[in-house]
Specification:
Layout (H helix, E strand, L loop, with lengths): L2 H5 L2 E5 L3 H13 L4 E5 L2 H11 L3 E4 L2 E2 L2 E2 H9 L8 E6 L4 H9 L4 E4 L4 H18 L18 E4 L3 H13 L7 E4 L2 H10 L4 E4 L8 H10 L8 E5 L4 H9 L4 E4 L4 H13 L8 E2 L21
Parallel strand pairs: 1-2, 1-3, 3-6, 6-7, 8-9, 8-10, 10-11, 11-12, 12-13
Antiparallel strand pairs: 4-5
InterPro entries: Bact_response_regulator (IPR050595), CheY-like_superfamily (IPR011006), Sig_transdc_resp-reg_receiver (IPR001789)
Organism: BD1-7 clade bacterium
Protein name: Chemotaxis protein CheY
C-alpha cells in the first residue's frame, strides 16, 4: 500500500488516557497517517463519527461510559456507522472479553505493547479496504483476481461476524447476490443441498454443528469434497486446530483475519479453480516480528 493511500486514511482515536493518545498518535503519524481526531468517551465518539465519517476507529477497551464492545456494537447497529473499520488496542488478555470483540467483526485486536509491524499491517488493511471501497486502482504488484463470479457460503453463528466478512468480500469484488449465509453447520448443509459454491468460509465454534463437523461432512460428500473450505476462527487450542487441519481444511485464518492473506487465498482459488489447494497456515505468511520496536507500552489503562 502506497504512503499516499495511508495518508488518505481518516482516523478516529477513542482513548481516555491523554498519554496513550500521544503515544498512539506518534506511532500513527510515523506511518503517514495525517488526519487523526481524538475522543475520550463512547458518546463523544458516536457523535464525531456521525459528523466526520472516519475510515478507521482505533479504540481502547474501557471508558467511563462503557467498553469497546459497547462501542463496536453501537457502530454495527447504526447504518451510518456500520461500515467503519474498528481496531482494538488493549492490555486486556482474557479470552472471555476479547472473543466477543473478534466475533463483532473488528479489523484487528492489538495487545499492549505491540510491534510496529502489527500496527502497520492493520493500518494497511484499513487503507486497502478504503481504497477498494472508493475504487482506487491498486499497485501493480498487488495480487490480481476477479472475484465477481465467485459463489460463496458464509457460516458463522455471529451475525456481526458474517456482516464484517461480507463487507470485506464485496469490497474485494465479490457480488453480494452470490453470497449465501448460514448460522451453523446444520443450516450450512441444508444450503449446500440447494446450491453449489466455489468457496466456503466457516467459523469453528458454533452451536448444533461446529466447523470441524461441517468440514468432515463436506469432505465425505463426493460432489462437495473439492470445495475450498476456509476456517476463520478465534480458537487458540492447538490440538483442536491440528485436528481441523487433518480433517482437510483448505486454510486456517485468524479472527480477525489478515486482509493480505485473504486476497492471496482468493487469488490462488481464482487462478487455479480446478486444483484442490493444499492446507495452508496463516502463520507461514506473516512476517516475523523479532527485533521490532515495541513503542506502545501499557502505561495506564487498557
Amino acid at each position: 500500500m502506497s504512503s499516499n493511500t495511508m495518508k488518505d486514511l481518516k482516523l478516529l482515536l477513542v482513548v481516555p488516557s491523554r498519554l496513550q493518545q500521544t503515544l498512539l498518535s506518534k506511532s500513527l503519524t510515523r506511518f503517514g497517517v495525517e488526519d487523526i481526531a481524538i475522543c475520550r468517551t463512547i458518546e463523544e465518539a458516536i457523535v464525531r463519527m456521525r459528523e466526520a465519517g472516519p475510515s478507521l476507529v482505533v479504540s481502547s477497551m474501557y471508558f467511563e461510559d462503557g467498553d469497546g464492545l459497547d462501542l463496536v456494537e453501537a457502530m454495527r447497529q447504526d447504518t451510518q456507522l456500520a461500515s467503519i473499520d474498528f481496531m482494538l488496542v488493549s492490555a486486556e488478555h482474557r479470552f472471555s472479553v476479547l472473543d466477543p470483540m473478534r466475533q463483532a467483526g473488528v479489523l484487528a485486536v492489538l495487545p499492549k505493547p505491540f510491534a510496529e509491524d502489527d500496527l502497520y499491517r492493520a493500518l494497511n488493511s484499513s487503507a486497502t479496504l478504503a481504497a477498494l471501497k472508493a475504487n482506487v486502482p491498486q499497485a501493480e504488484n498487488e495480487p490480481a483476481f476477479h472475484a465477481s463470479s465467485l459463489r460463496i457460503l458464509l457460516v458463522d453463528d455471529s451475525l456481526l461476524a458474517r456482516k464484517q466478512m461480507l463487507r470485506v468480500l464485496t469490497r474485494l469484488g465479490v457480488s453480494e447476490a452470490l453470497v449465501r449465509q448460514a448460522e451453523d453447520g446444520q443450516e450450512a448443509l441444508k444450503v449446500l443441498e440447494e446450491a453449489t459454491f466455489d468457496i466456503i468460509f466457516t467459523d469453528y465454534n458454533m452451536p448444533n454443528m461446529d466447523g470441524e463437523a461441517l468440514l468432515l461432512q463436506i469432505r465425505q460428500k463426493q460432489d462437495m469434497a473439492d470445495i475450498p473450505v476456509f476456517m476463520v476462527t478465534s480458537e487458540t487450542n492447538q490440538t483442536k486446530l491440528a485436528s481441523v487441519q487433518a480433517s482437510g481444511v483448505t486454510a486456517l485464518m485468524d479472527k480477525p483475519f489478515d486482509l493480505d492473506y485473504l486476497k492471496y487465498l482468493l487469488s490462488i482459488h481464482y487462478q487455479q479453480p480446478d486444483t484442490k489447494p493444499e492446507s495452508l497456515d496463516l502463520t507461514a505468511l506473516l512476517p516475523a516480528s523479532e527485533g521490532m520496536e515495541m513503542p506502545y507500552s501499557d502505561v495506564d489503562g487498557c
